[in-house]
Every structure is written in structure tokens, then in C-alpha cells.
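Recall the central idea of this unit: under ordinary conditions, the amino acid sequence of a chain determines the structure it adopts. In this exercise we apply that idea directly, starting from the sequence alone.
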Amino acid sequence: MKMFKFVGLLLCFWASLSAGRLTTSGTNLYYNGQKVFLSGANIAWNSYGYDFGNGQYAANSKSTLESWLTQIANSGGNSVRIWLHVEGANTPAFDGNGYVTGPDSTGTMISDMRSFLDFAQSKNILVIFVLWNGAYLTVQNTINLFWDDGKLQSYIDNALKPMVSALGDHPALGAWEIMNEPEGSLLNNQADANACFDTTPLKDTGAGWTNLYIPMQNILKFVNWQADGVKGTNGAALVTLGSWSEHAQTDTKAQSRNYYTDSCLVAAGGKANGKLDFYQMHTYAFNGQWGPDAPFKVSSSSYGLNKPLVIGEFASVCAQNEGIQNLFQYGYTNGYQGVWSWQYNAGGECSDTQATQDSGMNQLKGQNGAGGAVNFPVGF
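Accordingly, the structure predicted from this sequence is:
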């Protein structure tokens, strides 16, 4: 009898190690062994770059963000994408020479993030934390991380690893996203003998709009090293990246190349574990028309990817007049593993109102078909 009790306890122990976490298998996402579909919104920010760390969360954003999580949950949403350092103006903590000394200067960053995760779990919502923003980047200390290996390593050692170590097993932590739209900061139309670093396929696609001219090899190393830092700290943690369009994440379409394959990331940075677990594309219509290869015009399988694919940003106001409910449903029924509307603070260009986004999430609320379960308990 004692042996049976011991075996039972052992099985419960091993089950607890694998429970309460978002995982991948092939092109699907799972939570606690159940196939799931991530339906939700980009919160992005309440206070741009100042939501977490240095006492900002409790002072500026906690009540607003919690009210948004509640509203998203009530609408049937199960996941949110929210930005952390953004450009690096508030966090992490940099010294006078541009080296990172900690997640923030006053020591509230990790507790702020944990508070957000705790509340998200209470609402059965998974959180994707986005570290950096490549779509608009003006802080020189952050730009230097792409060029100086020592400074990049200081961020990994003194900020990223402590955050992952403290929070990596939280049941509401869906994934770490290294960067939003790095292609904005890219040196575009730059030939290279290595196809992974050759950006001539992106000529005339619009990449490189910030005029920072960072070579693709530098961007891929930036991603590879940080992904390796996450994985080295918590081997079960998921890592993703939010690409600005399909052009940079597939080899099957015109004017496109998948720069974020395992082989390209390792070729750039040399870190064998520095890989993505799932892909993420953003998509907006131009002059009311989708491009022919945009996610809402094709199935997920048409991109030829071997990992899950989430439509990480879109808005019905920058679509083809399909309506938000049809866009959410399209993602669910056409092989994608998630859809996140832009953006819940309802500010800026191509941003739907909260009511519109709630309507989209309500379209998928309770669905549990071939696309996966939309609503599921977050926890052990």
C-alpha cells in the first residue's frame, strides 16, 4: 500500500511539472495538454514604456490594466500581448556607460509583472510579455544593444534572466516575445552571401522605416542571444517574435523570406537554444485592400511553417471591410493558432475601439472545435 501511495505522489509531482503552461507540438498550441486557440487583444500599453518598473505600475497603470483584463475576460478573451521595456526609457536600468545593471532602478519591476500575471490568472488569461519595440526606437542605450555584445550580455545577465527566473513558471505566463517588429529598424535591401542576412527580398516592402539601418545579422543575434537567455534560465518557457508582416516569416510567398528559422537565428548568434517556439505575423490592409499573401487572404498552412502561427496584430478599421467578428472567425477556422486585435487602449492609427474588439472576442467565446479550445482554466 505504501508503494502505491509513493507512486501516486510521484505521478502527481511529475504532472505538476508539466501542468499550468503553454506548450507547442508541431503547429499547435496546448495548455495542460489541451489544444487551445489564443483569442485576445494587444493591450500594448496604458502608459507607453512606463507600465512596469520603478514604481510606475501601482502609481499609473495597475487599476486600468486590471479593468481591461476583466473586460477582455468577460468578452471571452484568453490572452493578451503587453509591452515591457518598449524603447528602454524607463526600464531596464542602465549605468552611465550603457551597461544594464538590473530590470529597473528601484526594484519593483518583477513584483509589478507578477501582480499583473496574478490578476490575469484570476481571469483565465495568458500573458505574452514583449521586451522591446523595433517599430519605433529612439533611446540610444537600447540601440547600442544591437551593436555591443558586452552591453547585450549585461541585459541578459542582469535583467532578462532575473525576470525569467522569478516568473518563468507562472501559470499565466504564455510566452516571452523578444521584439515587436524588428524589421522597422532593419537595414533593408542589403545584399549578403548568406541568405539569412540578405534583405534584398524585402526591397519595396516597406521594411526599415525607422532609418536605423541595423543589419539583419545584428537583429538575428539580438534575438538569438535573448532567446537563449530565456531558455537557459527556464527550458520550458516559450519564445516568439512579432514580425511586421508575412514578408519576413515565410519562404513560400513573393518578396518574402523566413529570417527567423532556427538555422538563421543560430547562424547569426551561435546560441543553439536561441530559437523561436511559435511564429507571429502582423497584418494591416493598405487603402482598404489586403495584400494577396496577407494572413486574412490565405490559410496558415500556405506559409509552409513547421511551428504554430499567431496573427499577432490586426484591426478591422485597417482591413477589407470584413468586420471584426469575421476576422476573428477566419483566424480560428483557417489553421492559425491565435488572433490578437490592435489595440485595447484604442489609441493611434489602425486601432479598433474596445467595444469592437470585445465583439470580435465574443465571436469565438466558448468555441472548442478543430481550432482548439478558446476558454480554459489557467492554472495547475
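The chain is about 30% helix and 20% strand.
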